[in-house]
Structure formats: structure tokens, C-alpha cells
Amino acid sequence: MGRLFSKVLSRISFRSGAVVFPSPVLSGLILSGLVLSGCGLIEPEKAPPACPEIIVLKEAEEMTRFQGQGRDLTDVTFEASINNFANVCVIDEETNNLSNQVVVRFELTQGPASDGAAKFNYFVAVATHDRKILSRESFDLVAPFEGNRTSVALVDNIFPTIPLRNGKTGDDYIIFIGFELTRSELYYNRTKI
Fold this sequence. Notes:
Layout lengths: L15 E6 L2 H16 L13 E4 L5 E5 L9 E17 L4 E14 L6 E12 L4 E12 L6 E8 L2 E3 L9 E7 L3 H10 L1
Parallel strand pairs: 2-10
Antiparallel strand pairs: 1-8, 3-4, 4-5, 5-8, 5-9, 6-7, 6-10
């Protein structure tokens, strides 16, 4: 099986920025603060725009990376999961573009075969409700396991901008999120589901 999504259009733009947190509690508080602070950007007399629904794909919400061809527990370099996400959006009334801030939180655990860091890719795709992919971007992240830490939380911010045309609103779109997996990683996930 190839990529989970293959059709890519360039009409939706993405920006990214990642932050590593050693403490899962701290990253949860910051994620909550980002979502709540987005609410303050909306004028009180206007209703907030409808944001696209976010869906983390079941088969791509976890990743177990192995060293080499082995599949023993001693071959695990790291395990990762997407364990939280949020979306805040604002409409630009001049351009009719819906600007989103998608916050994705990853939990990573170091395995016995670790080289000291977890390097992985994940994707964000914008689609219509009939699941036609309008745009898909891949993002590379590195989470260092510093000192004697065996787990780390990583928060990434993605900023997709969706041009709203023909009376569409944010409700007419879905944002898909998931790890980019190799064939063997996808098979491993399917055996666990």
C-alpha cells in the first residue's frame, strides 16, 4: 500500500512550528492555553466561524519504529502516538480565507534500540466531506531524549489556510492527521487494532 492520500493540490498553504516539552503535564497546559487564547481573538458581537472537523486516522495514530528488520521488543527505537489535537480558526473577510491553527500533541517513548532521538514524519491533509483530498503536506519532526529521559511530549503547530468559495464554510471541510508509516509499520499497526 502506498501513501494514505496521494492527490495533492497546492491551493491550500501550510506553515509549521514545533516545540518539545519534557513534561506531559506542561505540554497539556500549554495546549489548553493555546486553544483558549484563540477564543479571545474573536469579537464578542460576532459568532466564531465554523472550523473544519479534525480526524486522526485510526491506522496512523500510533507509530512503533524498529531498528533494522527485527520485530522484537529489544529492536524498538521509539514508540509515538498522537494523543491530543485542537483547531482554532479565523476568517479573513476581505479574502474569504479561513486561517486555521492546528495544534498536534505527540507522546514519544524511547525504546531499547534508541539512538537518543525520535525522527518521524506526519501528515496533515485538508479534504471535503466526501473525502476528496484538496491538499496534503508532510512535516518532519525530531524529538530528542535528553539526559536520562525516556519519554517526551512534542507539540507542533500547523497553519493551513483554506480559501472559502461558493458559500462554503469551515463545516464543509475535514482535516486529517496521521503518522507517515512504512509498509511494515502500517502492517504492525493493523495487527494491533
